[in-house]
Design goal:
alpha/beta; disordered C terminus; elongated; 13 strands; 6-stranded mixed beta sheet; about 550 residues; single chain; about 10% strand
Amino acid sequence: MLYRPNVCICGSTTIAMVLRSAKSEISFSCRINQQTCGFLNLGLVGSGRVSYVAIRIIGVRKIIDELRLAFTNATRLACLREALQPLTPVSSVTLSVLVVISLLLYALLDALHAGQNLAISEHGVSTFIAVWTVFAGLVALICANRTLMPLSRILADLTAISCLFVCIYAIAKVLVDLASMLGVVGSYGEEEILAYAFLPLVIFLWNLTTLWRAGRRFLHKSIRFSGLRLVIAACLPVFLLPQSPLVHGSETSWERLDIWAYGPSFWQRDREQASTPSLPRIDVERTYYRQNELVSRALQTVRPSNGGQSQMFFVGAAPYATQDVFKREVLSARSLFDRRFKTKDRSIVLINHRDTIKTTPLASVSNLEFVLQEIGHRMKADRDVLVLFITTHGTHNRLSVHFPSLSLNDLTAPHLARLLDKSGIKNRVLIISACHSGSFIPHLAGENTMILAASHADTQSFGCSNSREWTYFGDALLNHAMRESRSFVTAFNRAKRLISTWEAREGLAPSKPQISAGPAILNLLNKIERQFEDGASLQR
């Protein structure tokens, strides 16, 4: 899949006008040319230092001419030709149109990568504006007293360069996908590496070269490294400011180049690796062939439903092998449900960890699929409830399934929905402790389904550390709230308040845990809760 071209950041209208004038009173006015098609006059009266703003839409013909000149210069620079040298400024309307075009093109590129269930991300729009604003400020500092060209003209040309390369990325993405559909690009072969890795890199370097040429054009050629300064100004906001897609969907990759996304995970990983002694090599082949035996042995302890009352079944999965907290949490969660909901003979766990590789089935997608189907055969579809607890790292619509030396597939939200539907399990309680786990709700929600997610679709959850026994969400929900109440809704509300207290105390961004519950599952869970309140323990 092509990467989103975040590096081609070129201009910002939000501060362009401020940079154009440092006067205490700002006045924009444009005379209507009789030969053009201007129509609208809009007067805004303010107070204070900005006492009067008059905005008149200039002629459409002039806007078109300015847009054509900006894109002509962008194309000439991209083709390694000398750009034109107009010294006339660009109107605020033209700059606004260019920024809107760029915003729409970025959104289109994100949509091409997003798959289904498209939605606009408010966080993505805000970070987009922030990155452009910072870049425009850097351009203003670089160009101050070093060019005879108006700042508005420089910003217009840079914005056009941005639009041009977004179009190039989008066209390349469509062509590669079409080639893949026609079988021209094979899977996991040299053609795929060329199409999905090398091609975006070439376009990226081409974009940087164009920016470098633009810098050489805008600044005096006597200034050393004049083109390199503009390239650095384009890269700094991308790496230093948080990033987010403008449009997201079922297949959106939330991985970005900024230090806020990768820095903390790398620092944490370095500390953990430094404190972890070297471990013996895993026998990969034997591990794979051992799975049938381990899964069958684990399922032998799971008894089928009996009696006339509703019963709970528990399936826990800890798919991330290199952090001990997930293994500890899934085992503790199983112990809690065995005691509180009498699932001792109806529970099973899947774990990715070196310590359990010979005794416990791997938390792979294939093992989970087989276990769910077997559990579905042993449940009474109309009255029993499955509690599926998954604790791992996550991105939007994707849960990480990770074990060094083993090639395991991640678990996506659409795939999990298919596994559950295929199993025939009707009544479900899904507890997902992972970043961006709220993104699973649209795919899994239903009348007979309750989903408890550790975070909103656009936020992270916390507590994933080798030094912890629980993640924040698991600690608040299972280790605290559910020890006091068997009501999932009551426990979730208590856990949400507790997590907010912890995050505020440590200065963390709110994770915003999410809940979704259909009316049928709520009625069934209330019935099970009353069974315990009446003193009637669930039959095994």
